[in-house]
Amino acid sequence: MVGVGNERSNLPPDEEVAKSAIQPDSETQLLTIQFEWNGVLKSVSSTLVGVSPEFELALYTMCFFMGREDNHIQLGPYSVNVKCYRLGNNRIGSAFPIAES
């Protein structure tokens, strides 16, 4: 079981999770996964792993102040689009990385 806030979700058993040929190591900082949440399949989701909260906050704040929804950047070896949605004119509604192929 994985908990997020007060909600819980069942992840599929290991044999149902697709195995990647590339194993994570200390250099891996962008994780792309597929999962099901409350019966709905999330085809792809990306998250930063192994970076400090300060780095993420600075990254999302910088993208917010650049004023664009799509922010195409290079994070080490990864091409990433940082989506930044506004809540009104002066608040971050949501910000998250999307791995680009």
UniProtKB/TrEMBL annotation:
Keyword match Metal-binding: yes
GO terms of molecular function: hydrolase activity; lyase activity; metal ion binding; RNA binding; RNA endonuclease activity
Record-linked Pfam families: XendoU (PF09412)
Please give the coiled-coil regions recorded for this protein: none
Instruction: Provide the cofactor list for this protein.
Output: Mn(2+)
Q: Does the keyword Hydrolase apply?
A: yes
Query: What residue spans carry the region label Disordered?
Result: 1-22
Under the heading SUPFAM superfamilies, the entry gives:
EndoU-like (SSF142877)
Q: Which parts of the sequence belong to the EndoU domain?
A: 1-101
Q: What keywords appear on the UniProt entry?
A: Endonuclease, Hydrolase, Lyase, Manganese, Metal-binding, Nuclease, RNA-binding
Describe the protein's quaternary organization and the partners it interacts with: Monomer.
PANTHER family in the record: PLACENTAL PROTEIN 11-RELATED, URIDYLATE-SPECIFIC ENDORIBONUCLEASE
The family annotation for this protein states: Belongs to the ENDOU family.
* Protein's name according to its UniProt entry: EndoU domain-containing protein
Species of provenance: Brassica cretica (Mustard)
